[in-house]
Specification:
Layout lengths: L2 H17 L19 H19 L3 H17 L5 H8 L4
């Protein structure tokens, strides 16, 4: 996956978070997520998107891909996308 495709996927996820009225907010790394809300994990993921843009500008693609995988895992466990949809987001256009 090249940088343009990654940016396209990040834009798709940013749009999804906006539709859900999610605000970017870092979650404390030493705390566990509350069991009664998806918002903290989605807020954390939204905050990660801007940082990933910086990683790509710095050519840190391995870290970008790790973070993308993390976000996709959260989106799947939050029941916002199916595994098939997430796979298709990352596939190159034909």
């Amino acid at each position: 996956m090249d940088k343009n495709k990654v940016r396209e996927v990040l834009s798709l996820y940013r749009q999804k978070f906006e539709e859900l009225n999610i605000e970017a907010k870092d979650f404390p790394h030493l705390e566990s997520l509350p069991s009664d809300s998806l918002t903290p994990s989605l807020s954390h993921c939204l905050g990660m998107l801007a940082k990933m843009e910086v990683f790509m500008d710095e050519n840190r693609m391995e870290k970008t891909f790790r973070w993308l995988g993390f976000i996709q895992g959260v989106l799947w466990t939050s029941r916002l996308y199916t595994l098939e949809e997430l796979k298709n987001h990352s596939r190159p256009r034909e």
